[in-house]
Amino acid sequence: MEQLFSSSKVTVEYHDPHDVYKLLAPGLIPRLPLRDLHWQSHNGPVRSIQTLHVELVPAGSELPGLSRVSSLNLGAPDASTSRDDGFQTAPIAGRPGSTDQTDPTATALRVPGAGGKGRRHQIPGLRRTPYLKLLLVRCDDNETYKSTTRAEIKDWIKQNTPQTKPASNAENHDAFEWLIVHVVIPNTVAATQPRSANTKIPEAGSDGKTATSRWRGGSSTLLEKLRSDFNGSGKTAVDRVRQVRIGINDVPYDLLPRVVPAVPTGYHETAQDSENAWTDLIGKFKELILSCFDTRVGQYEEDIKERDGQRGLPGWNFCTFFILKEGLARGFESVGLVEDALVGYDELSVGLDAILQEQAVTGSAEAHGGALLPYTDELKALAQKSIDQVLDDESVNLQLGDNGTDNAHDIPINTSKKLYRELILANNVSLFDFRCYIFARQISLLLRMGNAWSTREELLAKLKEQQELIPRGVAPVTPLPKQTDESENLLQLAEICRRTLEFIPAISMIARKDIFSALTSPEEAEKTSMDPVQIQVVENIVASFAFSVAQQILAQTSTKSLPIPPSTLAVPDGHEPKAAIPEPKTMMHPARASSLNTRTPQRPPPSPMGFPPVRPPDDTSSGSPYLKPGLEELAARRAELYALSRNILEERGKKRGWTGGWASVPVIGEPGIAEMQDISLETEESSPQEHRAPDAVAPALSAGLGNELLRVALESDDNFYKLYEILTDKALRHYTVAGHEHSIQTNMADLAVLKFHLQEFHEASFYFYRTIPFFGETGWSLLELSTLIMYAKCLKELRQLDDYVNKALRQLLCKAAAAERDRIQQKSLFRTKPETEKTYPEKSSISGYFADLLEVSTSLEKEVKVPLSNLFCDVEIEGPPLYDEGQDSFSVSLKLHSLLVDTFQGQKISLRITSPGTGGTKEIWLQSKGATTIRPGKNRIRLQSTVVIPGSYEVDQVRISSSNVVLHHEREAGAPVDKAFSILRKPQVVLYQRASALDARLLATKEVRLDKNNSLDLEVLTGWNDIKTCEVKIKSATGGLRLLMSESSVVGSLQPLKRTEGAFTFGAIPAESSIKIRFPFTIEHDLLNVAVKAEVTYSTDNGDFAFAKTSSVPITLALGVNVQDVFKHDCVFSRFTVSTASASPLRLFKSELAGSDMFESHFGAPPSHPILIFPKQPASLLYKVRRKPGSKINPKKKQTMHLKLYYSVLQEEIEALFESILLKELKVAGLGEYSALVTSKVISRVQSSLTAYDLEKAALLGELQTRFLAETSWEKQFPGLGHMTASKTETDPASHLAEFVRGWVNRHAKLSIPHAEPSTVQLSSIVIPVDIPAITIVHTADIRFQEPLASVEADKDRQAAYPTVTTNQLLPATLHLKWTRVWDTAATGGAREQDLEFGYEITAPPDTWLLGGRRKGHFVIPAMSDADSGDEGLASTPDTEADIPLLLVPLREGWLPFPSVEIREVGGGTGFHCETDYRNLGETVHVIADRGKVTLSLDASGPGGGPLVLECEREGLVAGRVVA
């Protein structure tokens, strides 16, 4: 973007003897300032000057003075805005020479001629001369040029330009360039001439497209003549002639020549030619100005280098060197190289520091740069006047001058405030003024670099003034450039604030020392100390000056680009009150009023439980929400300036007893720390009382306060606190933009403490609520406690009891407890070297708040919940559970360490243990008996429960209730335990089932029927409990399991008093008795195990108790049965294959196949001993089933038969054996109460350890080795085991039980499995329904040989079973076909009412049999008539049977099976089934060869290279055979 606002300006002097400037100005001024200049620095890269303003000054007139001043000048010109080229004239003999301080009309322009009549100052840093001199020439024709114009130009060059080489390098300080501008007027001969004689002129009518002739002037043009006469002839000659032609419309009518040239040339100036001429002129301006500037800079750098090298010589003066080097810096500034100018002033500032340091080391000021004034006259006068008025007790305004006007609006940092450069040149300047001048120049340059609003206003005024120089009534040729509002460079503005923050402390020290030096002589300063009144006045002057500087910079760096959020100091009605303290940005013109109105912050939003986070979730400070660079930096620096101003105000307020409130903040620390006082080390007799201000100091509290805003604020405490609040709020809002979270919270805490100090509790609570978490998270724990105490007091005064309890008291107690926890941890650490002891809160300062919490909480509707971990530590379960003797209850010991400083009564202390598992989560609550006193430190509480549910648990809740306050701790069961956390590091609790306690066992019934719902048995054992009333609830604990409780029943004499869905209520039940409840169930999908939850609530003489247990039992079948049916004409053979369904063998004791209304079964001789079935060795049972004679098909008749098997599983026998032996020996060893626990662990180990091989081996050998139990670590099998009864005193029951199990294993290395008998083993049974398939037709096919059959066997019996024939023997046979409908037992069947046609086919391998006869055919089975009854019509008769003759010829030797017969339905689709009983299946015919002698040839002449049969003789065994 184009930078229109730049204060770069050089002077161009023009000579206008022909009065043509007014014609040139409309085209020249709009093309200014110069843009995009590039200068090659001598010691660096190319420097770019974006805009360079040119000030056109007429020759012979006075040097222009200050054109405008900015709004900050207020009557005094600023050097940074003056028309200064950087090379100015110094005062000589009392004549002013600096345009910074002189009246613009007092100094006339002295143009040095060729002879050097003008007097130059010996210090070049104070010179001021133009960079470029212009001669504006009007010459209308060649004759005028020859006669007068050429001579005039020569005279001007002779008078205004040096004709010879400069006599010394000093002339280069005034180096300038010159340029002749030929202004051509329309309607003149010069206007008809081209710029060059070689220019081609188009003929008339050619429209400028073709060039056919040259200009016929006969000689050179005027422009060429000028260049020939005045440009020189060397190669390095500079072109110093330019021509500008004025358009006819740009010349006033009265100035336009009336006579037109008689001989036209045909040349016309186009718009492009005119624009090119102007561009060439502007380019020449750039070139000549930069050339002049380069010469001047080079000379200055040489002089500065020379003077700097003379530092060690006597008489070297820093002030003179300062003026010289500042001249170079101001020269840079004049051309827009503001950065280079700033570097120059920074180097001068560092040089001043170095000179002062050398003078301090050597003690001689004259020998090192010259001495500065010891004090500033203005500061001395102000201090002396203030002291005099205080001593005279005058009640006047100390800030009013002699004329009674208020000078407080003067800008403290201003280069035009004094004649600084003259004072420096005269070595008549103090260090205070020197520093102020350098800083003012630096700030002025930085404001220009930052494009601040003040510099923009000044430059706009200059541009306006320059544009006003255009003659009235003449429109500019080129439109004026559009003035855009260029935004500021925020980084440069931030740099101004940063330098100010460094400048104010330094200048304050200098000013303080300056005034002290002015008020006391060196002799007095060594002998006596200053009067308190003087000290007070000096401090007021210094503070006022520092405050004014800060406010000035804040005003100069203010920008609309800074998005400052709205103030939180808004009044409730939204209107801004009229206050005596104005906004700090208006400190230049402060307002006065009589009173202040207190503003209150906005109402805080409804808050959640606790405090908000330090950084809200929608905070954008993690990433900058502002896109403009430098915005955060500027906001932070301005915030620091506001904070500095507030600190100055606070220090002045302390003298009047006013503070920001921090002095009254409650101190929470270790006792015994006394309040300390400042003790002076000057004299032994001094005491703290001597340093207190006497009564005479009181009138001096306002003396010397030059800043009106500060003085008004210190007139009353209301004004003081108002300004303190405004400055803090502004710093807070600026820090918010900067994203400095710590500073935001710090300032917010300052506002909170201030409001609390002023007893504005509503506003204070708002700020405390937002800032308290910050102190806790950043390690300021004691300060956090202090603010919490104040916050609690605010809420209590406001009667906001809910917030008082939940936000203030709760947080206060938690933070105090956290400090106590940290103290305990630090005390327990082992240290190898001493460390600084950490400070912790004093217990007395935070006592009583918990009692207040309990008292106030009763008035709240909701209970107050506080995390237990905030107030307690080391909360653990101490030891395993303890079981009560004679009743079903247990207790645990809860150990906890109270971090509170108060003792309180825990009205109800409870603990919950949970165990996720089958059937849902199990929960048990344990509670204390009555109220318990909890004291600070360690406490032990016994918690008891009458609910015993065996299993592994974890503590997930601990609750302590007192009044309406609940201290709670919750954790997720199963979550990993954080060992670093001091709450429940070992939350595991294990509960075991005692043998004498009430128990519930879930068993699967021994009788299983596959055609009915299976049942489960729940057996409740009362143990030692003499129950008065009892209620049993049964619930499903497996998905897909449905309990049919409506069909349930109670087995035994004890019957329930009341029965509801799944609940049974019983009356009195004696001890050591049991009740059994049987209930069927169904499952929605296949399950291996089902779980059922039993809940038993009962009452005894000892109270009410509850028991719950979720048990799981397998419901899978222990065996599997497959059946294979073989249909015959009059019976069915069913073979049942019985196999084990698990890895355990089983014993099959007996089997029964019960008949039905239609069928009866027959079985052979039963086995004499049980059948042992292995996984790979099933058992087969063969039954013969016949249809009962005379039975008719009826839907009401039962056709299903039932197979009942009696069996036992070997693994169940082994588990029962282990259990019985263990129970006996545990009872003998006095460990009967542990029997349920030990047997469950041992049997579980047996189930997981026995393999299929072990079980098979045990079944074969009849014994089982128990050495696999010895490999188990039994101590780990009983974790968390406590004493089953309170009277037991064993130290470790788990070790005792482990020793018993190992001893038992050693005594029973082998267990003999007793021989299983039905009388000794509890058999299981399964009833399997068996259906006989309904077969419509059963065919019987039988191939019979005709008898007698010629056979070669002599043995008749063998011939009957296995006939022997020879190959190719003719065997006549008959195929006998018969059928039966006996097995068509379907209730409805259309096949019985129609004829059925079947087809048969006889097939045999072609290399085995040669078949003859009717191999294929059809036959029809007649339908059954209604007259058929009983067995009639169900089977074929001899009349309906078929005998089909066949001829069989065996073709090879061996045992040949009979040909096969296949019978199929003809025209399928009738939907009935048929079976074929092939009687010859498995029968064979023995075929032998009929050979007696065979003659062979052993060569390879036979077929295929084998032997050749030469002759074969047959025996002739059979008469009939096939002959080839």
What does this structure look like?
The protein has 1524 residues and is of the alpha+beta class. 29% of the residues lie in helices and 23% in strands. The chain is built from 29 helices and 54 strands. The chain has a 6-stranded mixed beta sheet, sandwiched between helices. Strands 9, 13, 14, 18, 19 and 20 form a 6-stranded mixed beta sheet that branches. The radius of gyration is 62 Å and the shape is elongated.
SS summary, helix count? 29
User: How many DSSP-defined strands?
Assistant: 54
User: How much is the average pLDDT?
Assistant: 78
Low-confidence stretches: 1-6, 64-122, 204-214, 394-409, 571-583, 585-609, 616-624, 670-676, 681-694
Gist of the model:
29% of the residues lie in helices and 23% in strands. It is an alpha+beta fold.
Q: Could you outline the blueprint of secondary structure elements for this entry?
A:
Elements: E1 9-15, H1 21-28, E2 34-40, E3 46-58, E4 132-137, H2 142-160, E5 177-184, H3 189-192, E6 200-202, E7 211-214, H4 222-230, E8 241-245, H5 271-308, H6 318-334, H7 338-362, H8 377-391, H9 420-425, H10 431-449, H11 453-467, H12 490-519, H13 522-527, H14 532-556, H15 631-654, H16 708-713, H17 717-738, H18 741-757, H19 761-777, H20 781-797, H21 801-828, H22 843-846, H23 849-857, E9 864-867, H24 868-871, E10 872-883, E11 890-898, E12 904-906, E13 908-917, E14 920-927, E15 932-934, E16 937-945, E17 947-948, E18 951-962, E19 965-970, E20 988-991, E21 999-1004, E22 1007-1009, E23 1015-1021, E24 1029-1036, E25 1041-1043, E26 1049-1051, E27 1058-1060, E28 1063-1066, E29 1074-1083, E30 1089-1100, E31 1103-1114, E32 1119-1127, E33 1132-1140, E34 1146-1154, E35 1159-1163, E36 1171-1173, E37 1179-1187, E38 1201-1209, H25 1210-1228, H26 1235-1249, H27 1252-1261, E39 1263-1265, H28 1293-1307, E40 1310-1312, E41 1324-1330, E42 1337-1345, H29 1356-1361, E43 1364-1366, E44 1371-1380, E45 1396-1403, E46 1409-1413, E47 1416-1421, E48 1442-1450, E49 1454-1457, E50 1460-1465, E51 1474-1478, ...
Parallel strand pairs: 1-3, 1-4, 4-5, 5-8, 9-19, 17-31, 22-41, 42-51, 43-52
Antiparallel strand pairs: 2-3, 6-7, 10-11, 11-16, 12-15, 13-14, 13-18, 18-19, 18-20, 21-23, 23-29, 24-28, 24-30, 25-29, 26-29, 27-28, 30-31, 32-33, 33-37, 34-36, 34-38, 35-37, 38-41, 39-40, 42-44, 44-48, 45-47, 45-50, 46-48, 49-52, 53-54
Helix pairs in contact: 2-4, 5-6, 6-7, 7-10, 8-12, 8-14, 10-12, 12-14, 12-15, 14-15, 15-17, 17-18, 18-19, 19-20, 20-21, 21-23, 25-26
